Every structure is written in C-alpha cells, then in structure tokens.
C-alpha cells in the first residue's frame, strides 16, 4: 500500500507543480504588461527584479487553486491510463486514493508555507526598496525603520501605519556636509499638501552652541503619501507570527485591524483550504470520468476554483463591510467547500 501511496503522490506533486508554474507564469505576464506602461526608460531590469521578488507571494496565493487543478490533472491522467480502474479492482478504495492525494498536497503545502513565512517577507522588503528606487526615492529599511534621502536631508521614519500615519520621524538637514538641524516628531499626518507633525523636538546646530526647541505641532514639506504607501505594511507579505504581532501593535495604536485579522485567518486556513480543494478533486474525477475528456475536466476544475476564489474573497469583504468577525469570513467558505467535498466523496465511495 505504501508503494501505491507514493506513486499517486508523485503523480499529483508533478501535476500540481506543473499547474502552479503555468498559473504563476500567467500572472507574472499580466503584471509585466501592466508595469511596462509605467516604466521609465532604462529601468526594465528593475521591473524583472520586482516581479521575481514577488514570486513567493504569488505562489502562496495561487497554490490552493493549483492544488485543485493539479489534483484533477493527475487523477484524470491515471484514469485515462486505466490505472485508477486497476487500483479499484485491486481493492483500493476511493477514500484511500483521497488519502494519498491529501498526503501529496500536505508536502507541497508545507513547502509553500515555509516559502511564504520565511522567504516571502524578505523578498517583499527587497521589492519595496526596488519600487522606491523605480519612482526615484532613495530608500533603505533596517531595524530602525525606513531611511529616505530627499535633497540634502536624510529622513528616518520608524513606521508607516495602514492609514499612512508616520511614527517616530527624524529629519537630519545638512549644510555643506555639516549637520545643521535635527527634527524629531512622535507622529505625523498628511493634510493640505504637507505633513503635520506632532510633539516636535528641533535641535539647531549653530557651532559652537546648540539651540533646542519643542512644540506640540510642526510641519514638513516632505515626500507625498502616495510614494510612502509603497512602504506601508502589506499583511499578505508578513509571516503568520509577525502578522499576529502587528495586529496587536495596531490595537495599541488605535488603528483599524479587521482587514489584517481577515488576512491572518486566511493564512491560518490556507492548509485546510488546500485540503478541501484536493478532497473535492477526487470525487470530481470519479463522477465525471465518463462525461468528457481531460480538457473538459480541467475546464470544470478551473471554473470551480475561480468560483471558490470569488466566493472566498467576496464573503471576506462582506464581513468587513458589515463588521462581522474576520474569523467567520475566512472559515465559512473553506468549511463549505470541505463539506461539499466530503459529501461527494461519501457518495462516490
């Protein structure tokens, strides 16, 4: 039995990997076409770098649907070769075939989770830096936050919140290579074409003396928020643990967290979503084995995957709109799909 499990798993891993590669390639092509229209001359290499750095996020997003289509492709190829019929004749039940398919999905799911949680965040950080350079901003990120260069000034922003509020802003102004002014503000909001800073401390370096000024408010004619939005935290680019910590951080700063909580639960439910997709593929192949060829089954699998994707995202947006629990928004679509898959599997088995 182990040999049969291994054989089925290898076929499904190969077919799912193939489908995932096709989907990722298509999405990268669409992104490339969209990006080229806004690319400056001579910056084409940077576009390809940004697209390459976005691969982990693309793979994580497309994997559940790829698992459905890939499992359908792998099982359909076994059916067309008569191997599924031989397995059933040898006493291998549909449930055991489904178990073998779930094992294959588990292996790929673990690899995808590792890619999304460890490689993805670092790639997203590098992509943001490349995007900033593409629009003409000299920028770097480290443990102290975001560093920007604007003219003869260097700006350190501790954090860019979802509503584009900036925290822990420090501006260093230089004059002929010498530090002339240092300005620190606890936070800032963009209003009426400029940044309004709060709790400002300003130090003027007029050698040989220092002049320190403090005020409740100040202003900075700095970088537009549309450019800073590149550095706002993207919840999809965070690991599960960091996303959990960031949600708690937003609570402490009185920020809206529902969207971030929804993404958190999407990430938690991702393995179950993949399992539900694969579970649906097994009875789907057996029930439609005589209703068309491989192309027909793949077409139906893609349609079902798209329907689930629209329902999953649409229901999540509905929970945000009506202020329902984000956990409900992430669980209901997957639970519904799992129930449908188990029901069909029971009827086939």
Summarize the structure.
This protein has 349 residues and is an alpha+beta fold. It has helices spanning 2-36, 44-53, 55-80, 83-89, 94-134, 225-228, 240-252, 258-287, 294-321, 326-348; strands at residues 138-142, 145-150, 153-160, 166-175, 178-191, 194-206, 209-220.
Account of the 3D structure:
The structure is a single chain. The chain has 349 residues and is α+β, with helices and mostly antiparallel strands. It folds into two domains: 2-135 and 234-348, no CATH class; 139-222. The protein is built from ten helices and seven strands. A seven-stranded antiparallel beta sheet has the order 1-2-3-4-5-6-7. A hairpin with a 2-residue loop joins β6 (194-206) and β7. α1 crosses α3 (55-80), α3 runs parallel beside α8 (258-287) and α5 packs across α8. The chain is elongated and about 95 Å long.
The sequence of SSEs as H and E is HHHHHEEEEEEEHHHHH
The helix tally amounts to 10
> How much of the residues is beta strand, in percent?
15-25%
Task: Name the strands of the widest sheet in spatial order.
Answer: 1-2-3-4-5-6-7
Poorly predicted residue ranges: none
**Rg, nearest Å:** 26 Å
| Structural class determined from secondary elements | alpha+beta
| DSSP helix fraction | 55-70%
- Assign an overall shape: elongated
- Biggest β-sheet, characterized? 7 strands, antiparallel
Tally the beta strands. Answer: 7
N- and C-termini, Cα separation: 18 Å
Rounded mean pLDDT score: 84
Number of domains: 2
């Amino acid at each position: 039995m182990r040999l049969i499990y291994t054989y089925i798993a290898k076929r499904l891993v190969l077919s799912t990997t193939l489908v995932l590669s096709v989907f990722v390639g298509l999405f990268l092509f669409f992104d490339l076409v969209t990006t080229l229209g806004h690319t400056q001359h001579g910056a084409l290499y940077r576009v390809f770098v940004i697209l390459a750095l976005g691969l982990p996020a693309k793979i994580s997003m497309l994997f559940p649907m790829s698992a459905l289509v890939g499992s359908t492709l792998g099982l359909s190829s076994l059916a067309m070769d008569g191997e599924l019929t031989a397995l059933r004749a040898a006493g291998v039940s549909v449930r055991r075939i489904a178990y073998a398919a779930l094992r294959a999905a588990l292996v790929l799911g673990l690899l995808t989770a590792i890619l999304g949680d460890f490689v993805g965040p670092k790639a997203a950080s590098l992509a943001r830096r490349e995007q900033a350079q593409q629009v003409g901003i000299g920028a770097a990120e480290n443990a102290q936050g975001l560093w920007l260069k604007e003219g003869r000034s260097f700006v350190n922003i501790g954090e860019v919140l979802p509503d584009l509020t900036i925290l822990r802003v420090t501006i260093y102004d230089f004059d002929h290579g010498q530090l002339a002014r240092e300005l620190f503000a606890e936070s800032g909001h963009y209003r009426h074409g400029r940044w309004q800073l709060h709790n400002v401390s300003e130090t003027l370096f007029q050698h040989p003396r220092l002049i320190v000024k403090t005020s409740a408010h100040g202003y900075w004619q700095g970088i537009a928020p549309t450019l800073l939005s590149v550095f706002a935290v993207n919840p999809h680019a965070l690991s599960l643990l960091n996303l959990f910590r960031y949600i708690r951080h937003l609570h402490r700063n009185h920020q809206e967290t529902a969207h971030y909580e929804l993404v958190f639960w999407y990430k938690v439910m991702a393995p179950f979503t993949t399992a539900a997709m694969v579970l649906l593929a097994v009875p789907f192949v057996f029930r439609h084995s005589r209703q068309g060829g491989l192309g027909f089954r793949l077409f139906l699998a893609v349609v079902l995957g798209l329907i689930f994707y629209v329902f999953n995202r649409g229901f999540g947006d509905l929970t945000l709109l009506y202020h329902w629990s984000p956990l409900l928004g992430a669980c209901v679509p997957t639970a519904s799909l799992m129930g449908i898959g188990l029901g069909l599997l029971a009827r086939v088995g």
